[in-house]
From TrEMBL:
InterPro entries: AAA+_ATPase, AAA_16, Cdc6_C, Cdc6_lid, ORC1/CDC6, Orc1/Cdc6_arc, P-loop_NTPase, WH-like_DNA-bd_sf
Protein name: ORC1-type DNA replication protein
Ranges of residues in domain AAA+ ATPase: 50-201
Binding site for ATP: 62-66, 209, 221
Family: Belongs to the CDC6/cdc18 family.
GO biological process assignments: cell division; DNA replication
Amino acid sequence: MSDFSFKPTGSIFKEREALLEEWTPDELVGRDEELRQYHAALQPVIEGETPSNIFLYGKSGVGKTAATRFLLQLLERDAGKVDGLDLHTVEINCDGLNSSYQTAVALVNELRDPTNQISNTGYPQASVYQFLFDELDTLGGTVLIVLDEVDHIRDDSLLYKLPRARSNGDVTAARLGVIGISNDLDFRNQLSSKVRSSLCEKEVSFSAYDANELCEVLRQREAVAFENDVLDTGVIEMCAAYGAKDSGDARQALDLLLESGDIARETNTELVTEAHVREARERLQTDQVVEGISNYSMHGQLVLWALTILEEQGQTPARTRDVRDPYEMLCEREGNDPVSDRAVREYLAELETLGIISSTQVNRGKGGGKYKQHELDQSVSSVKAGLSELLDTAA
Ligand SMILES: Nc1ncnc2c1ncn2[C@@H]1O[C@H](COP(=O)(O)OP(=O)(O)OP(=O)(O)O)[C@@H](O)[C@H]1O
């Protein structure tokens, strides 16, 4: 039997935690323009004026939360040096809080003592708002309320009320500012104009990271997380290049570097190489695809499987109608009636949104309109791993 005893290797990581999501860097690299605009939007606070309401938007993993924590920490530090400026910040994540009511309850509980919390049901909405305004008045001074992932709140009653609480006389003893953060780029446009005009008084848009910016983020973590000279030449650049190509998301680039280090450690090597990065990417993609596909409908999976067969046979990019034959063959094998051409097109569009396939429009030539071609955007082995349950049934 193999030797399963545990021995620390200690040769790759100095502080592996520095690559985990919870770790906050002391300094934010690669976000100078965004930080400059955000800093300017927060300036009224240090002047002792009423804060602007600020709205931050940008895709996932582009540093919106990290920038907020970084600047608010500095603001709190510097506000402490200004006579008469009493600054409080409250941050909640609205993921899981679907309504204004639930968000107001969460804010009340965040502001209240743990022994004096209110429950999530049973109060009229007006009473919950009153509890919240009372808590804000008790705090007094300047209060910045951060609503991260604000797009989860489905109705806009609180987003209307909160920025106006001072001017409407609901809160009299505190100056209020709301910072809304969202990675849903449509959220802002769907807000009613009265909410948008107050919630989005100042806006800061965070662009996706390019490869150079991701290199900066990764180098900063390398210094903390890894032992000296453990990363082979090109490893950081490769993680950054994949990160920029996939999504421009720092979280994904950091995950890739972490997984590469883990693979090096698993294989008892003392150097993290580009080969480890390639393997790590394959693993992470597989995890992502498995997660994306596992709850996907049966016919969606069959359409994907059909395209995978074409890809394995070197017949991609494939037109929608080319997918039909293998799809029907699979339906027959699985004992399912095939869905319409239109439904197949919709499944393909959905798979594209999930990032599992990519599609391109092709011109038919003079006056001939356009058609779509599809191919896998992930490796065949990742997709097969995602489809494994279906493939197992078929085997
Ligand atoms: N400029 C940066 N420098 C260092 N680390 C960064 C930077 N930008 C992002 N990160 C790190 O990347 C991860 C994701 O960043 P963050 O949570 O701020 O993204 P986000 O834009 O708020 O994403 P989401 O919308 O998904 O919440 C965090 O671990 C964060 O510390």
